[in-house]
Amino acid sequence: MQNDPRSHGLWELTAPPAPQTQTLSGPMEADVVVVGGGFTGFSAALHLAERGTKVVLLEGREIGFGGSGRNVGLVNAGMWTMPDELPGVLGQLYGDRLLDLLGNAPKVVFELVQKHAIDCEINPAGTLHCAIGRSGLEELEARAEQWSRRGAPVTLLDAAETARRVGTDAYAGSLLDMRAGTIQPLAYVRGLAKAAIAAGVQVFTASPVTAAERSGSRWTVKTERGSVSADWVVVATNAYTVAPWAEVRAELVHLPYFNFATTPLSPALQKKILPGREGAWDTAEILSSFRYDRLGRLVFGSVGALRGTGTAIHKAWARRALKKLFPEIGEIAFEAEWYGNIGMTADNLPRFHRLAPNVIGFSGYNGRGIAPGTVFGKVLARHIAGELTEGDLPLPVTDPMAQSFRPIREGYYEVGAQLAHLVQARI
Ligand SMILES: Cc1cc2nc3c(=O)[nH]c(=O)nc-3n(C[C@H](O)[C@H](O)[C@H](O)COP(=O)(O)OP(=O)(O)OC[C@H]3O[C@@H](n4cnc5c(N)ncnc54)[C@H](O)[C@@H]3O)c2cc1C
Fold this sequence. Notes:
Number of helices: 13
Helix content: 25-40%
Strand content: 15-25%
Structural class: alpha/beta
Largest sheet: 8 strands, mixed
Distance between the termini: 33 Å
Strand order of the largest sheet: 6-7-5-15-16-17-14-18
Shape: globular
Bound molecules: flavin-adenine dinucleotide
């Protein structure tokens, strides 16, 4: 994408093509203009169009250019925050509502994929959150107990069962979550875009919104060569926000995350390593993740940016760490490498903002945006269609709060990840 093999990597090499789109030119009228072409924007647009609303979606670059086309593809349930802590942070009403919504969110993704026959390597085989050491296991024991009490199909696996499922004895145990699974993320967002277009949404790419003006009860958003007037504006630009809603970006600290995709593993290796094809990640502070794609390539990732000195450091680390985890892999080649920026909020929870009257959006998914982006987009559509009042939403309205020392913290993440990967072959 954009001639950069390190932006979308394997996903761009293997996704079905994006639907044909044009750049916006001239004035247009709509009921709702959606700004941002990722999971949130396309889910909102699709669900609005299905309700008979006239929608125009404007994407600054290409469909899935942001986090939606670059991520690991773990379709997770819930957030990082412990289930029992959410009511304490958000209050009982919002805490319970958010837990219900996000706990069931992977199911919404799987149903949407089926309904629109989206070809995106969907695999609802569950995920394995793998424990590093005693402290990792204690964290997972607490998660297992708290989700089980809420009726979620999660199981704490011991070290022996984890070793059988993952193919390494590096972990003290794991949490199997059967609500979750894996997806080819760029294929998914392109599929959502096709479904939205089929439902009547007009999609324009290479059309960054540069300004938004209110006239009477309507908004006019402007691009270099065109404009859209609408009653509502959905701001779905999240961690990749470029003006005019810079406050959405200022609230998020960018955490870089990279992935390497191996060549397809042999059938014998695929029987040994993750034979159940769950998505997996670990409890380390600088975490690692791994999963298969459809052809049996292992996608292996961790914190860091593949630019400058980071490229060589993280690649060398990935080779060492993979070999340490799965020695039988040997000297395997990488077919693709890419990275993106995760948008982290101060408390690791997402936000709902009303940036101005009738200008609304969700953001700040903290590296868990496939299922949340999909359900939050649907919630936005239902709210605009009058099915949910503002009081019915899963999060309270908050004003964006700029994070202090953001550039310094972003630099710290990038350099810190290099240092960590330089000095250790983790796990
Ligand atoms: C490397 C990485 C790994 C991740 N792994 C996972 C994972 O395994 N599981 C998971 O659930 N989540 C994961 N995430 C998080 C997830 O990808 C994001 O939370 C999700 O994609 C956010 O979707 P979105 O639609 O809200 O925003 P995005 O997908 O970021 O879309 C925002 C779009 O807005 C566009 N835009 C910005 N400004 C303008 C403007 N002015 N005018 C028009 N368009 C504009 C951008 O070009 C972009 O395409 C990961 C993220 C990254 C980066």
